[in-house]
């Protein structure tokens, strides 16, 4: 199988490595089947999409909707490079899965609206599939209603033209969409487990993903969550698009 490509942007090694491990486990992949590029560390190398089965963009402390003059030079470079790659991905309808930061990037690239209207604090939420989601080749593999982990300061407020809404949530109406047949984005994290979200919360404890006074409530909600279905979507992505 050609490897998948994970484009990561977390500068904290613990969070970056935990994210990589999460995608490996959720997708049932070995390290030689998931090539990681850490864009925060160095410019994006020349990517030949034909060398890969698909592209994954994970979460990030970056927010795509932040005003350009508040973004670091690294974030601006990363987003220019990813926009260039999305030119190819969208034009070719190449297999793509953007999670959290990835949905913000894809929405912005396709001229949808991303802002802070539907931000959600870190923790578990209920996700519900739409009619289109229930018949989708990836999302149709999971229960119609399931728990997932989120934690985001921005979200898609208006879908890009032509995008198909696949999943929604009570406090964030756009939890997943598809463009074309093969380009997907999720607001929730398909790779996150209970252990994984606890690592993220420890690493990003000062980044405003939850109110300090709500710490005990957040921890209790995570401990009580039964998050299994999101990994099924990642596994379905690998099984559908993994190519010899």
UniProtKB/TrEMBL annotation:
SUPFAM superfamilies associated with the record: Class I glutamine amidotransferase-like (SSF52317)
Segments forming domain Glutamine amidotransferase: 49-193
One Pfam entry name: GATase
CDD domains: GATase1_1
One Gene Ontology cellular component annotation held by this UniProt entry: cytosol
Keywords noted in UniProt: Glutamine amidotransferase, Transferase
Claim: Plastid is one of the keywords in the record: no
UniProt GO molecular function: transferase activity
PANTHER family associated with the record: GLUTAMINE AMIDOTRANSFERASE YLR126C-RELATED
Protein name: Glutamine amidotransferase
Species annotation: Cryobacterium arcticum
Lineage: Bacteria, Bacillati, Actinomycetota, Actinomycetes, Micrococcales
């Amino acid at each position: 199988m050609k490897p998948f490509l994970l484009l990561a942007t977390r500068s904290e090694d613990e969070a970056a490595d935990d994210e990589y491990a999460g995608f490996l486990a959720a997708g049932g992949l070995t390290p030689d089947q998931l090539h990681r590029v850490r864009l925060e560390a160095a410019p994006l190398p020349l990517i030949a999409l034909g060398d890969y089965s698909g592209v994954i963009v994970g979460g990030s402390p970056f927010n795509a909707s932040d005003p350009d003059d508040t973004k670091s030079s690294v974030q601006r470079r990363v987003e220019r490079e990813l926009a260039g790659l999305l030119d190819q991905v969208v034009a070719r309808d190449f297999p793509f899965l953007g999670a959290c930061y990835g949905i913000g990037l894809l929405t912005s690239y396709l001229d949808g609206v991303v802002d802070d209207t539907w931000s959600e604090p870190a923790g578990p939420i209920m996700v519900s599939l739409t009619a289109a989601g229930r018949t989708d080749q990836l999302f149709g593999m999971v229960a119609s209603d399931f728990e997932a982990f989120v934690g985001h300061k921005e979200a898609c407020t208006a879908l890009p033209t032509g995008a198909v809404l696949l999943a929604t949530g009570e406090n964030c109406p756009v939890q997943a969409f598809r463009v074309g047949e093969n380009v997907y984005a999720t607001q929730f994290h398909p790779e996150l487990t209970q252990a994984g979200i606890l690592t993220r919360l420890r690493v990003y404890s000062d980044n405003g993903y939850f109110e300090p006074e709500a710490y005990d409530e957040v921890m209790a909600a995570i401990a009580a969550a039964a998050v299994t279905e999101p990994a099924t979507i990642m596994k379905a992505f690998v099984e559908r698009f993994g190519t010899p």
